[in-house]
Amino acid sequence: MSKKKTFVLRINPDTFKQIEKWADDEFRSVNGQLEWMINKCLKDAKRLKNSPETKDEE
Question: How many structural domains does the chain have?
Fold first, then answer.
């Protein structure tokens, strides 16, 4: 298993509620949803190559 970097994220409470609802809708944790969103954005911007860890996490 790969190591993950931890950090503090300050986020608007309304934004957090929307991400939390989206995560619930897709049966993910908020943390998992944020990871998925970040990876998707990086792939869409062609800043992340597909690797076994990031491939088709949908």
Answer: 1
